[in-house]
Amino acid sequence: MLVFVVGLLYFYALGSGRIVRSNDIKGTRFVCSAIPKNVDPNCPLPPNPVQSTSAQEDELRGTVMQLRETVLQQRETIVNQQGTIKELTSKLSRCETAALDSLHDRKYPGQGSWSQDHGKNTMGDLPRDPAETIDHLGKTMQGLKDRLGNLEQQIQVNASTAAHSSEMRELLKSRLSELEKQLLGKVSELEEEKSQLYNETAAHRHRTESTLNQLLERITELEKGTSKFKSPEEFKLSLPLRTNYLYGRIKKSLPEMYAFTICMWLKSSSSPGIGTPFSYGVPGQANEIVLIEWGTNPMELLVNDKVAQLPLSVGDGHWHHVCVTWTTRDGYWEAYQDGEKLGSGENLAPWHPIKPGGAIILGQEQDIVGGRFDATQAFVGELSQFNVWDRVLRPADIESLANCSSYMPGNVVPWVDNNVEVFGGATKWALEMCEDRLYDS
Predict the structure, then answer these.
(1) In a domain, 54, yes or no
(2) Residue 288: inside a domain, yes or no?
(3) Least enclosed by CB within 10 Å: which of 4, 42, 52, 327?
(4) Structural domain tally of the chain?
(5) Taking every annotated instance into account, which residue ranges of this chain make up the domain Pentraxin (PTX) (predicted)?
C-alpha cells in the first residue's frame, strides 16, 4: 500500500515539474526565415512579401486550439487525481494508526482510555471492537438460521401439498376411467339397439318388397301380360314323344310351405304308364314333390322322396281333372279325379316343410335340380291348368274347378302363358278347356 502511494506522489511530482517548465518557456517565441544557399546568415535580408495563406493558417489555428483544449482537460484530470491521492493518504494513515493501537491494547490492556478514544470513528468500514464484531456475526448467523428454518417449513408445506395434489390427481383419474367405461358401455348398448332396429327394419322392408313384387307379377301375368292366346290361361302344353329333352318349365319357384294343393288337366293314352306330369326338386332333394305313373305301377305321390300310391287312372286318352292335397300335420294326403275324392291317407313325410327355391319341371322327373332326365319316366300327352296353392282346398272348390263352374288360379303358381317355358320341341297351343272337354266327351 505504501509503495502504491509513493508511486502516485512521484507521478504527481513529475507532472507538476513538466507543467512548471512549460510555464517558464511560455513567453519565448522562435521565428524561422528562409535565406538563399550562398548568403551569409548574419547579413540582413530585405523583407519578402508575405503571401496569403489564409486556408493554411485557419487549419493550423484549429489544430492549435484542439491541442490547447486537450492540455486543459489533462490538467483537470491531474487535479482530480491529486485530490483522490490526498484522500487515500489520509485513510491509509488512519488505518495504520488503528492497527498500531489495536496491537498496543493487546499487549498492555487497561492502560488508559486514550487508545480507546483514539480508535473510535475510523472510517465506518470496521466494527468498533471485536466483541461488537462477534455480536454482529452472531446476529447474522441467527438470521441465516431463521431464514433456513422458514425455507425448510415452506418446503415441507409444499411437499405435503404436492402429495395431496398427487392423491387428488389419482382419484380424479380413477373417476374419469370409471365414467369412460360407463360411457363406452352406454354407447355399445345404443349401437346394439341401433343394429337390431336396422335389421328389423330391413327384414320388414324386404318382406314388403317381396309381397309387392309378387302382386305386381300377378297383375302383370293376369291383366297386362302379352299372350298370343285369347286369355293367358287358355292354352295347353303338348309333349308328344317319350324323350329326355321335351319338357316345360315353370319360371316361378315355390316358397316354404306346410301344406299344398296341386291341380291340373291331363290327357294321355301312353302305356305302360303316363310318365311324370310334374316334378319339383330342391338342392339336396330332387324328389321334393313328384307325381308319377311309371311302367305298370299305379300313380304315386312323392313328398321328400316318401311315397303314397294314388287310386287314379287317367291313361284313356281323355281329359281328366286331377288334384292332390297334402299337409305336414301327420303327413295327411288326398287324391281327386274329376272333382271326386278317390283316396286319402297319412304318414306321408309328416312334419316335413316343403323347401323353397327349387325347380318345377312339367313332363320330366328330375335326378338333379332342373336336369338329368330319364326318357322312360317322361310324360307323353297334353297338360293344362297347372295351379299350386299353399293350403288345402275344400272339396267343393275342387269340384267347382273340375265342373268348369268357376276358375280359381293358384295363389303360389298360377297357370299363365308368360310363366311357362318350353324346351326340346314341346309346344303350347290355344285351348278353351271346358269347351274342349265337352267336345272330347
Answers:
(1) no
(2) yes
(3) 42
(4) 1
(5) 233-434
Single pTM value for the model = 0.50
Tell whether 48 is covered by a domain: no
Name the residue among 358, 385, 419, 361 with its Cα closest to residue 244. Answer: 361
Contact 247, 383 (CB under 8 A): no
HEC-encoded secondary structure of 311-363: CCCCCCCCEEEEEEEEECHHHEEEEEECCEEEEEECCCCCCCCECCCCEEEEC
Distance of CA 45 to the CA centre of its chain: 116
Residue 231: predicted pLDDT: 74
Task: Provide the domain limits for residue 250.
Answer: 235-440
Domain membership of residue 5 (yes or no) is no
167-to-135, 156, 172, 173 alpha-carbon distances in Å? 48, 17, 9, 10
**Overall average pLDDT of the 237-263 stretch:** 92
Residue 221 DSSP class: I
Other beta carbons within 10 Å of 129: 14
Report the SS3 class of residue 209: helix
Q: What is the pLDDT of residues 130-186, one digit of tens each?
A: 567 667 777 777 777 787 777 777 777 766 766 667 788 888 888 888 888 888 888
Q: What is the pLDDT of residues 389-405, one digit of tens each?
A: 999 999 999 999 998 88
What values do phi and psi take at 236, rounded to 5?
Answer: -130, 155
* Residues 265 and 273: beta-carbon distance below 8 Å: no
